[in-house]
Design goal:
By secondary structure, the protein is mainly β. It folds into 2 domains: 10-94, Cathepsin D, subunit A, domain 1 (Beta Barrel); 113-242, Cathepsin D, subunit A, domain 1, CATH 2.40.70. Helices cover 7% and strands 47% of the residues. The chain is built from 3 helices and 20 strands. β3 (33-41) and β4 (44-58) form a beta hairpin.
Amino acid sequence: MVNGAGPFSFLLDTGTTRTVIDPDLARQLQAPAIGKDSLAIYSTVRQVQLVHLDGVQVGYAEASDLGVMVDKLGEVKFLAPGVRGVLGEDFLSRFDILIDYKRRELSFGDSAPAGERCPIETLGHYHGLPTSNRLLIKAEFMDATGGKVKLQLDTGAKTPELFPASHDSFPSQPWGGSMAFSSGSNGITIHSRITIKIGTTMIPNLDVIQSRHGVAYDAIGLLPASIFHRIYISHSGGFVVLNPGE
């Protein structure tokens, strides 16, 4: 629900720092403009309008007085037709969240379940400038050398993805498994049968995409939350519990 109207379909995206709505919804809500800001999508940055929302509500979770971005959301709507906006960390960070992918359930405000608590960082840095509303987690690629790296825990991503141009700490070769390549200016390398370790949790047999073009980011890449059956995100405690109850 937005400003008491709806409900509308939103993409829940912990990788988005600020909530975004499409222009039609902004007009429908008659949301007042409050300025402009830069919307960064990987290596693309564009100026968009900011509007004020009185309140955004998902179930019993509600936040008031949000300044949100307005964008056409072309790529998002291509992947998820009917979506009217993206619910970002400016909303989500106010709550502790349990996402159950098996049951397709989202719970706000539940107590932390039993299990290993893996630390997350909500602040990052890129080119000396601070970034906020982030969910950065340390992970280790067991099939590569280079130690632990920071990944963005992202509910909007489908596949683990690495951005070598962003950081000097990119894992070095050799990689295990097999590799495949695509051509063109936006070509990628796909590493198959990769194992990622977070805390004591091992996630085997993953396909990992490695971008071959420059991407500006405060993390070395993306870690999809959907590779876990369940995930508890404690914004108040600064940790996640991976696959609780298993």
